Amino acid sequence: MIFSRRAGQSESPGSAGPGRRTRRLIKLVLSVVVFGALVSVSLRVAAPHLISSAVVRSAIESSMAQWAGHPVSIEDVAQLRFWPRPEVTLNGVSIRRAGDHPDEPFVEIQSLSAEFSLLSAVRGKPDFNDFRFEQPQIRIERDVDGRLDWSGDGLLNAAVREALATQTTAASDGDTKKTEIGSVEIVDGEITLIDARSGARIVADRINAKIDWPRLAAPLSGQATFNVQDRGLSLSLQTPTPLLLLGGAASQVDISASLPGMRGQLKGVIDLNRGRLEQADVDLSVSDVPQAASVLGLRVAGTERWQTASLKAQVTNAGDEWRFDNLEFKINGSPGDGILTLKKRTGAKPLLIGTVAVDLLKIDDFLQALSIDLGDRANVRLPSLTRWVDFDMRVSAATATAGNFQLTDLGASLTGGGDALKLVIGDTRFMGGALSARLSVSGHGVDQGVEIAVMMDRIDLGSLVSRLSPGSLSLKGTGSLTLDAKLAGPGWQRNVDAMSGRLDIRADNGEIGGLNAEGLRRMSTDRAYFQLSAAGTGEFDYRSLDMSVRFSEGSAEVEKARIVGERDTLVLSGIIPYSRQALALTGELSEVAPKAQTTAPLRFFIGGSWHDPVISPIPPLPAAGQ
């Protein structure tokens, strides 16, 4: 007889095994969780009775002393909490040096808070981490060898010494690597650094910082804001080798800093003992140059008109020189790049060598930075680049400006230093032609004299004259100009009398505005003197102009001036007191191809202001026998 099974009835007793085991496992886990929670709550409830503040105070005092290697004293335990996390707050923490000056604390902390492990505290040996320092005051001295005196014979210094010996971030000992620190928070702190080598004393106050350092062997990162001489700064730091950094050895760092009007980043290797960079990528940006200069207390000649600036470079310390590779910079939005090397020299200033290319070069600012003032700025003695370095550089610019003049495709070289400096400008496009120049300085800047040599070839003379002396006698044409001059004293326009030298001009196919030859002849027939403007308007067209003058003490002597036109030839000689914008010349106007019936050449005197001089005809000499 066949019997059917009821729906849902198990086929065998073993078929219920997996479900039953799952339920048992869930019950076990829940039981463990509940038990753990009960134990945790029980510990926190019982902790005030099991853990005394004296135990915690003694433990943290001993722990800090072991870490610092110096005696530690604590005034009292301000607060001991166990919920939600065990934490202790201490007041009046002081660390004194174990050796010299034991009564002078080099670390004073108004309030210190730290978290600790509850189980370790129950065992009587609490482990502390995640520290908070309120109003700490730290005094650090740097000796003549670059060593810092903050460390004693504690655990931290032992780890630093082993890191220095092995050149790794922490000691190789396993316990040291497991040593936990956690986070460190500083509120309203102050650090005083005294440098025995330079005698400098630097105080950083109002320090607020957050440092994340999980373990001694772990990388460190942190951010801080602080004041130095009432100037606010912010700083962030990341380093995979914090123990090497604390020991002052060469360490890999990523530092970003900002202050009003300025921010910068340095990523590479620094050596605190020697106070130098080993190799680093530097990124500096100044959004407000005057503000940043005021904050830093640093002003450099030639930067007075800078508003923004930025610089990027890979800086390498190669023994006897610094290399600046992949150099990129901007000044007032105008970019430039190049490669520079700063070579160290015994008994002399460092030598800056390299090549720089810029879109725009302001020659006035460039010369000012070299302590050469040829313009009319206020004579304020700002420090110049020649105070710190000598030069052997090549500079190129797509566009350059000098006063209200513009040059293109400029190439120049700069050699020498503050006592003997030479700037040579090569073949440069200028006013439709070409320009080359040489500027040589002896002594400190222009005060001891500067020699200038300028050669202009096939330039637009009309544009040159109108920009040099607006409103004066108009001279047009295409010509060449050679100037050799010496200037003593700053500002050629303010100190024009101090210029001396020679000027040669040769030109063709141009005109002299305001000079009417026919009007001169007509007015000279019946006038003893008259102003040039009374002779009428017009121009004197010339085919060639050849002029040489020698000048000094504010006056120029015309050695030669011959202007040949289509019909007339004009010859001039005499003195031009240019410091007073005056003329004292004699002139002779004659026909190019005189005919038998043509009258004698017209001779006259030109005097007065060069804007509208007075003409006084010179009577012809009587013929022999008259």
UniProtKB/TrEMBL annotation:
A UniProt-annotated Pfam family: DUF748
Region of interest called Disordered, as start-end residue ranges on this chain: 1-20
Transmembrane segment boundaries: 28-47
UniProt xrefs under InterPro entries: AsmA-related, DUF748
Superkingdom, natural source: Bacteria
Keywords: Membrane, Plasmid, Transmembrane, Transmembrane helix
Entry keyword annotation includes Transmembrane: yes
Record carries keyword Membrane: yes
Protein name: AsmA family protein
